[in-house]
C-alpha cells in the first residue's frame, strides 16, 4: 500500500488485513507499562492539518509515537501557508525535508489525491485525514474495527447511518467500506441532507428513523455540520432532534445487542441524548481508542509492511 486516500475502491482483503493488524497491535500493547514498539524507528511522519481536529490529529500523533516514528505537526496557521504558499509547494517542501508520510486534512475535496500526485516518485506516502465532503478513510476503518469488536463481525450486519449524510465525509467512507465488507447500509436522513445520486450508492434510503431502529445491528449518528451549510436544510435544531435525534426512547427500539457509534464531536441534546452517548451500548470512547490502533496499522502497512515481508 503506497497511499490511503479513500475507501471507495479499497480492496476488501487489504482493508481486512489493516483491521487484523490493528487487532494484533492492540493485543501486543495490552498491559504494557510502556506502550512503545520499535517498528517505525527512523521514519518521519508529518501531520498537515488545514482544518481543526482533536481526535484524528491526536490519534495519528500517538500512533506514530507508539511505533517510535518521529512525528512533526504542521498547522496552516503556523506555517508558510499563512504567507500564501501553495499546498503543492508545502507538500514538496515537507517531502524534501525528509517526510516518509504526510497525513493531510484539507477543506477541499480531492486535496489528498492531488497531494499524492504531486509527491509521486518522491517516496513519500500520503494519508487522507479528511478532505472536504469527500472521504475520511481512517475513520471508517476505526468504525469497522469497533463494529467487529462489538458485533463479532460485519458481514450481513445491518448498519444505519443517521443524519447529515450530505456534508459527511465519514458517511461516504463508511458506505464504501462497510458495503465492501458485506454489511447492509441504511441511510436515514431528511431528503435535504442526502447527496444527489444517492440511488447509485450501495445503500437503502429511509426518512423514518423509528421504523428502521428495530432491525439495525448498529446505528451511527452523524454530526450536523452547520459550518458547511448555506441555507435552510431543516426548520430548526429542535425539529431535527425530534425527527432524527437518538434519545432514550429510541434507544429502547434497538435490539439489545445493537451498538451506537458517533464520529465526534457530538452535539449532545440535538443529534444524541447525553444518556444515550454514555449508555453501555454506546461505543464512542472505544472508537477513539481503536482509532489509535487502526492508525498504527495504517502506518505499518504504508511504511513497514513491505520491508517486513522481504
Structural summary, described in words:
- Belongs to the aspartate/ornithine carbamoyltransferase superfamily. ATCase family.
- Pathway: Pyrimidine metabolism; UMP biosynthesis via de novo pathway; (S)-dihydroorotate from bicarbonate: step 2/3.
- This is Aspartate carbamoyltransferase.
- The protein has about 300 residues and is an alpha/beta fold.
- It has two domains: about 10-135 and about 290-310, Rossmann fold, CATH 3.40.50.1370; about 135-285, Rossmann fold, CATH 3.40.50.1370.
- Helix content is about 40%, strand content about 15%.
- The strands form two sheets. It has a five-stranded parallel β-sheet with strand order 7-6-5-8-9, covered by helices on one side. A four-stranded parallel β-sheet has the order 2-1-3-4, sandwiched between helices.
- Strand 3, helix 4 (about 110-120) and strand 4 (about 125-130) form a beta-alpha-beta unit.
- The mean pLDDT is about 90.
- Ranges where pLDDT stays below 50 over 5 or more residues in a row are none
Count of DSSP H/I helices? 12
Q: What's the rounded overall pLDDT mean?
A: 91
Top CATH class of the largest domain: Alpha Beta
Tell me about the largest β-sheet: 5 strands, parallel
Spatial shape: globular
Using the coordinates shown, work out and report the CATH topology of the largest domain: Rossmann fold
The end-to-end distance, rounded to whole angstroms, is 15 Å
What is the number of beta strands? 9
User: How much of the sequence is in beta strands?
Assistant: 5-15%
The class by helix and strand makeup works out as alpha/beta
Which architecture of the largest domain per CATH?
3-Layer(aba) Sandwich
**Whole-number radius of gyration?**
19 Å
Relative helix content: 25-40%
Order of helices and strands: HEHEHEHEHEHEEHEHHEHHH
Amino acid at each position: 500500500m503506497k497511499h490511503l486516500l479513500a475507501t471507495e475502491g479499497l480492496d476488501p482483503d487489504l482493508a481486512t488485513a489493516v483491521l487484523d493488524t490493528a487487532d494484533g497491535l492492540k493485543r501486543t500493547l495490552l498491559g504494557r507499562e510502556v506502550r512503545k514498539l520499535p517498528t517505525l524507528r527512523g521514519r518521519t511522519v508529518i501531520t498537515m492539518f488545514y482544518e481543526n481536529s482533536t481526535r484524528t490529529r491526536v490519534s495519528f500523533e500517538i500512533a506514530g509515537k507508539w511505533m517510535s516514528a518521529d512525528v512533526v505537526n504542521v498547522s496552516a496557521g503556523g506555517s508558510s501557508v499563512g504567507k500564501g504558499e501553495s499546498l503543492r509547494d508545502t507538500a514538496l517542501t515537507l517531502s524534501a525535508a525528509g517526510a516518509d508520510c504526510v497525513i493531510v486534512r484539507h477543506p477541499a475535496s480531492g486535496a489528498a489525491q492531488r497531494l499524492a500526485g504531486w509527491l509521486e516518485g518522491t517516496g513519500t506516502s500520503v494519508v487522507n485525514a479528511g478532505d472536504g465532503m469527500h472521504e475520511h478513510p481512517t475513520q471508517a476503518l476505526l468504525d469497522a474495527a469497533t463494529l467487529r469488536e462489538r458485533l463479532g463481525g460485519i458481514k450481513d450486519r445491518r448498519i444505519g447511518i443517521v443524519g447529515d449524510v450530505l456534508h459527511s465525509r465519514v458517511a461516504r467512507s463508511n458506505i464504501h467500506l462497510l458495503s465492501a465488507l458485506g454489511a447492509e447500509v441504511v441511510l436515514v436522513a431528511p431528503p435535504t441532507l442526502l447527496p444527489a445520486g444517492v440511488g447509485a450508492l450501495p445503500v437503502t434510503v429511509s426518512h423514518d428513523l423509528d421504523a428502521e431502529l428495530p432491525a439495525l445491528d448498529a446505528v451511527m449518528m452523524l454530526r450536523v455540520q452547520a459550518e458547511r451549510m448555506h441555507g435552510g436544510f431543516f426548520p430548526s435544531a429542535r425539529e431535527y432532534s425530534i425527527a432524527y435525534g437518538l434519545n432514550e426512547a429510541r434507544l429502547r427500539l434497538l435490539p439489545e445487542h445493537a451498538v451506537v457509534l458517533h464520529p465526534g464531536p457530538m452535539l449532545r441534546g440535538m443529534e444524541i441524548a447525553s444518556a444515550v452517548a454514555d449508555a453501555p451500548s454506546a461505543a464512542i470512547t472505544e472508537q477513539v481508542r481503536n482509532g489509535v490502533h487502526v492508525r498504527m496499522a495504517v502506518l505499518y502497512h504504508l511504511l513497514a509492511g513491505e520491508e517486513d515481508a522481504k
